[in-house]
Each structure stands twice: as structure tokens, then as C-alpha cells.
């Protein structure tokens, strides 16, 4: 093969999910069985494919993706060949027991709502909202559950007073006219293992848009203020400022926007199962 050393061949892998669909972003390592040296570490492409040129020999293959069981294979690379893809299927991992049906109240002292925005085209600014409330109504069929959360816009905090005042102003959140951000779900979708997508409507700056939260359910335990039952999850989403008419623009002399067009939203949530004696979170 043109450009390929005489002693080299190709390893070609096709990574699939538990139902046989191509699986992107799986982490793949290939280690020489003869030397124990790790030769390749990469991720599968959007079609679940991995292709690598390697010296002739035998390799140990490991494929992993969070929420799924790791898969191990042995692969022979033959000099001068490019074989058809070898299929590797990642099966569902051990899934945390789902929360029991009922109302779960978000616990603010053990919940964080953060965001990351690009600044001057090269660095990130990290911030958070410090005042919010909400809860989850878990249905008998979890797919029928409902999440609602209300966030006080003026509670935005980035660690810089003048920047926070600017973010509260009419240039950005305009907290006098739009005091709250609000999210209400309309669909829970199970992806695989502990991974879910929570779809819903986010109202921000007086504009409502559909948002999908990529969610990793972390399980339920007894613990906390009074050994109450609580569950936890982590969720992320990408928001586009202009979708919510947050159109403030200011450019550096080089034409680089001071504030980037997208914002990464991150939520680490703990919620307590509501009973007649559920404790009130401290202020």
C-alpha cells in the first residue's frame, strides 16, 4: 500500500452500542501483545470506526465508554493488508437502581448550577447561580417523569463584582424585567446504562427554547441531614446566546468577540425524597 512501511498493516474496528448502532466517542487502546507497549489510544469517529496503521503483530484491544461494559479483543495486524472492520459491541453496564416514584426536592446546598463561557476568544469564564429551587416527580415509568427548576437570575456569580453587575444589566440577563430562568421538562429518554436525555423548555431572558440535557444518573442512597433518601445526577447542555436574544456584542481590534456565542451549562443535582419529615435544607 502506497506510503505504508513494508512491515505495517491496518487495524480497522467498528464499535457499536448495545442495540448494534454505531457508537462514536468510545475510547480505544491497542497494546502490543509482544512488548506490552501501548501503541494507540484514540476515540471512535461519528460512525463508530477506528483505523490505525501498526507494525505486523498481535494486539490487545480495549474499548470503553462510560455507562457501558468494557470490551476486550485480540487483533492480528498483517503487513500490507487493510481488512474489513472487526466489530466490537459494548453492552449495557450495571445500571444504578432508579429512584422510587414520588416527589424529590432539589437540595440547594448540595446542588451546583454552573456555566462556562468563552472570553476574548482564548479563555473561559466560569460562573454559577446561587439561588434556585425545584424538584422531580418520578413516575412509575421513569420516562413519564417531570423535572422543574426555577433559578433567580440576579444570583449569577463569576467572582468579579463589575462583571456580575454587567451580566445582570439589560445588556445580558436584564434581571429587572426577567428575574427568573425556568426549565420544565416534557420528556425523559433512556439512552443506555445510566445515561438519559431530559428534554424540556428553558425560558431565559423572556425567550423559551427547547433544550436537551445530557444526563448521567448517579444513583440513590440514604444520607444527608437526617439519613433521608436522596438521589443524584449530572447534566450538561450547550446554549446559544442569540437563541435567547442575548445579543450584546463587543469586539477586540482583531475582530474577536469579547464574549463567545455559546455557553456550556453544567448541573450537579442532589434531590431528597419528600415525606412528612423531609428536612429543610439550611440556608
TrEMBL record:
It comes from the Bacteria. Residues 103-272 form the Lipid/polyisoprenoid-binding YceI-like domain. Belongs to the UPF0312 family. This is YceI family protein. It comes from Streptomyces tubbatahanensis.
Amino acid at each position: 500500500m502506497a506510503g505504508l512501511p513494508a512491515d505495517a498493516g491496518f487495524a480497522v474496528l467498528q464499535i457499536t452500542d448495545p442495540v448494534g448502532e454505531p457508537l462514536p466517542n468510545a475510547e480505544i487502546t491497542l497494546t502490543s501483545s509482544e512488548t506490552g507497549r501501548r501503541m494507540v489510544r484514540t476515540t471512535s469517529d461519528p460512525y463508530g470506526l477506528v483505523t490505525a496503521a501498526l507494525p505486523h503483530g498481535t494486539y490487545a484491544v480495549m474499548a470503553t465508554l462510560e455507562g457501558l461494559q468494557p470490551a476486550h479483543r485480540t487483533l492480528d495486524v498483517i503487513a500490507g493488508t487493510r481488512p474489513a472492520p472487526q466489530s466490537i459491541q459494548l453492552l449495557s453496564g450495571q445500571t444504578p437502581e432508579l429512584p422510587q416514584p414520588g416527589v424529590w426536592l432539589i437540595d440547594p446546598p448540595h446542588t451546583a448550577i454552573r456555566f462556562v463561557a468563552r472570553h476574548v476568544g482564548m479563555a473561559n469564564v466560569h460562573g454559577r447561580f446561587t439561588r434556585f429551587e425545584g424538584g422531580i416527580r418520578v413516575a412509575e415509568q421513569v420516562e413519564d417523569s417531570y423535572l422543574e427548576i426555577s433559578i433567580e437570575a440576579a444570583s449569577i456569580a463569576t467572582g468579579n463584582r463589575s462583571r456580575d453587575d454587567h451580566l445582570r444589566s439589560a445588556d445580558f440577563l436584564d434581571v429587572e424585567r426577567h428575574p427568573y430562568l425556568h426549565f420544565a421538562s416534557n420528556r425523559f429518554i433512556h439512552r443506555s446504562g445510566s445515561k438519559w436525555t431530559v428534554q424540556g423548555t428553558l425560558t431565559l431572558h423572556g425567550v423559551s427554547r427547547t433544550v436537551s440535557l445530557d444526563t448521567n444518573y448517579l444513583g440513590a442512597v440514604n444520607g444527608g441531614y437526617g439519613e433521608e433518601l436522596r438521589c443524584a445526577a449530572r447534566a450538561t447542555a450547550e446554549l446559544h446566546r442569540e437563541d435567547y436574544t442575548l445579543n450584546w456584542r463587543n469586539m477586540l481590534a482583531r475582530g474577536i468577540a469579547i464574549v463567545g456565542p455559546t455557553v456550556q451549562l453544567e448541573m450537579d443535582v442532589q434531590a431528597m425524597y419528600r415525606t412528612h419529615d423531609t428536612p429543610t435544607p439550611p440556608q
